[in-house]
Write a structure and sequence with these properties.
Elements lengths: L1 E2 L26 E5 L9 H15 L2 E4 L6 H12 L6 E5 L5 H5 L6 H7 L24 E2 L3 E8 H7 L10 H13 L3 E3 L8 H10 L16 H18 L12 H9 L3 E7 L2 H8 L12 H4 L2 E4 L11 E5 L2 E5 L1 H4 L2 H14 L2 H8 L12 E2 L5 H10 L4 E3 L18 H5 L5 H14 L1
Parallel strand pairs: 2-3, 2-4, 7-8, 10-13
Antiparallel strand pairs: 1-12, 4-11, 5-11, 6-8, 6-9, 6-10
Helix pairs in contact: 1-13, 5-6, 7-8, 8-17
C-alpha cells in the first residue's frame, strides 16, 4: 500500500541518481563540508550513508567537519569564514545566524548558480526557500524543516465522546470539546504553563493576527500587532480560568505534563514535529530500540491541526525550513570544486534524498516521491497525512523575539493567567526590552 503527501514524505534512497539532473564532474576533488548532521541528530547516519554513496558515484571525497548544532558550532562556522578556512559546502541556518558571512560575500546566491547550472534546485518550490535577511536573495537549498501541531490521545477523546478534530477545527469547537473532556474527568490540554508555555504563546498570537504580519514584532501594545499579542495572552488566561489545563500546570515540568498525556490523563498536546519521535519512544520498552515499540499503544495517538480563529485557518501551521545547503564563494571560484560542490548539493537535495531526511517533517519539494507505508510507524504516517493538508507554514516569531524579551510573557505566564499581571503590561515590558537591544 502506498500514498503520496504533497508537502512531506519519506522514501528509500535511490541507489543511483540517473535522470535527476545531477551535475557531472571530474573525479578526485576533495570537498570540505560542514553540516549539523552529527551527534544525536536523527539524520546523522543518513548523512554518512549519503556521503559514502556520492563519493562512490562521483569519484570525489568529502572531508566531513560536521558537528552538533549549538552556539559553539555557530561561532566556529563564523570564525572559519573570518579566518579564511571557508567550507566548500555548508549546511547551516538561513536566518540571522547567516548574516555575517552573507554580508561578507562568502556564499553564492542560488540565482547566480542557476546562471551556469539552470537545473540547480529546480525540484524545489522557490516560494518555500527562505530569503536572506541581508539582501532578500536566496542562498540555502533546504532539506527538512519543522512544524508545530496538536497531538491527540484518542483514548481520552473516546472516553469523553469527542471526535478527533480535522482540518476545519475552529476555536469555538475546541472550547466545546475541552468542556466535554473536563466534564469527563480529564485534563483537556497537557501543558506546563510555568515551564514551557512556548507553543500556546505562539499559536495564541497567531490566532489573533494573520499570516502576513505574524513574524512582525509589534512596535507598541496599542498597534494592531500589539493587540494580537495581548489578546493571545488573554486567550491562554481564559483557558486557564476555565480549568482546561492540568491542575498543576503552573508548577509542573513539561516532562510531567507529557507523561500525563501519554498516560491517558490529558487529551491535547501542542508541540513540534520532533515529538513524533518522543511519543514513539515513550511507547517502546527500550526508548533507544525501535524494535521494542508497542504498536498497539502508539495507535492510540494521532496528530492534527491547532484550532483556528479569526483569519487563521487550522491548516495554517507554525513551521518552516530554517536550514539549507550553501555553496561558498571560495568553492564557486575554484573551477574544479565548483562542479563538485554543485554536484554534491544536487545529490543531497534530490527528491529521493530530501524525502529520506524529511520523513514526516516539512520540505520544499515540488513533488514528493511515494513511500512504502511499511517503512514507518503509525504516528509518522498520520503526520504525513496531516501535513498533506497544510495550507501554509509561517515561522515562529519567538525566534525573533528571543532572550530577555520573552521573560515577561514566558517566565511570567503564571502571573498573567492568574491575573497578578495584566497581559497588556507583560507584553509592553517585553517589547520595551526588545526595542532597547
Amino acid at each position: 500500500m502506498r500514498r503520496r503527501a504533497a508537502l512531506v514524505m519519506a522514501g528509500a534512497l535511490a541507489c543511483t541518481m540517473m535522470g535527476t539532473g545531477i551535475t557531472a564532474n571530474a573525479e578526485g576533488v576533495e570537498l570540505n563540508v560542514t553540516t549539523t548532521f552529527a551527534g544525536e541528530d536523527g539524520n546523522a547516519q543518513n548523512f554518512k550513508d549519503a556521503v559514502a554513496a556520492w563519493e562512490e558515484e562521483s569519484g570525489n571525497k568529502v572531508n566531513d567537519a560536521s558537528a552538533t548544532s549549538d552556539e559553539t558550532f555557530k561561532a566556529r562556522v563564523e570564525m572559519d569564514f573570518q579566518t579564511g578556512a571557508d567550507p566548500d559546502v555548508l549546511f547551516f541556518f538561513n536566518g540571522a545566524d547567516a548574516n555575517s558571512f552573507i554580508e561578507a560575500g562568502k556564499v553564492v546566491p542560488i540565482d547566480t548558480i542557476r546562471k551556469e547550472y539552470p537545473e540547480y534546485a529546480s525540484n524545489m518550490n522557490d516560494d518555500l526557500i527562505a530569503a536572506s535577511l541581508v539582501d532578500g536573495a536566496k542562498y540555502a537549498v533546504p532539506v527538512n524543516g519543522y512544524w508545530e501541531a496538536m497531538f491527540v490521545n484518542t483514548e481520552v477523546l473516546d472516553a469523553a465522546g469527542v471526535e478527533v478534530p480535522g482540518a476545519d477545527y475552529t476555536w469555538d469547537a475546541f472550547l466545546e470539546d475541552c468542556q466535554k473532556i473536563k466534564d469527563a474527568g480529564y485534563a483537556p490540554i497537557a501543558a506546563a504553563l510555568g515551564n514551557i508555555p512556548h507553543y500556546w504563546w505562539e499559536y495564541s498570537i497567531f490566532n489573533n493576527g494573520n499570516i502576513t504580519d505574524h513574524m512582525t514584532v509589534p512596535e507598541d501594545v496599542s498597534d494592531a500587532q500589539g493587540a494580537a499579542w495581548v489578546n493571545g495572552m488573554n486567550d491562554i488566561k481564559a483557558l486557564y480560568e476555565a480549568g482546561y489545563f492540568p491542575e498543576n500546570t503552573l508548577s509542573a515540568t513539561d516532562d510531567e505534563t507529557f507523561a500525563a498525556f501519554m498516560d491517558g490523563k490529558a487529551a491535547f498536546l501542542v508541540d513540534g514535529s520532533w515529538k513524533v519521535g518522543g511519543i514513539a519512544g515513550a511507547c517502546q520498552s527500550d526508548p533507544e530500540d525501535a524494535s521494542t515499540l508497542d504498536a498497539e499503544k502508539l495507535d492510540k495517538f494521532t496528530v492534527t491541526y491547532v484550532p483556528g480563529k479569526g483569519e487563521r485557518k487550522a491548516t495554517d501551521l507554525i513551521g518552516g525550513l530554517s536550514m539549507g545547503y550553501y555553496i561558498s564563494t571560495a568553492a564557486w571560484e575554484d573551477e574544479a570544486k565548483r562542479e563538485a560542490a554543485v554536484s554534491f548539493v544536487e545529490y543531497m537535495t534530490s527528491d529521493e534524498m530530501v524525502a529520506k531526511f524529511a520523513q514526516h517533517t516539512a520540505s520544499a519539494l515540488k513533488a514528493a516521491p511515494a513511500a512504502d507505508e511499511a517503512a514507518f510507524n503509525s504516528l509518522q504516517l498520520k503526520a504525513m497525512d496531516m501535513m498533506s493538508g497544510v495550507t501554509s507554514l509561517t515561522g515562529a516569531v519567538q525566534d525573533v523575539f528571543n532572550g530577555e524579551c520573552r521573560v515577561s510573557t514566558f517566565d511570567g505566564m503564571p502571573q498573567i493567567v492568574t491575573g497578578e499581571v495584566a497581559a497588556e503590561d507583560a507584553v509592553a515590558e517585553g517589547l520595551a526590552v526588545y526595542q532597547a537591544q
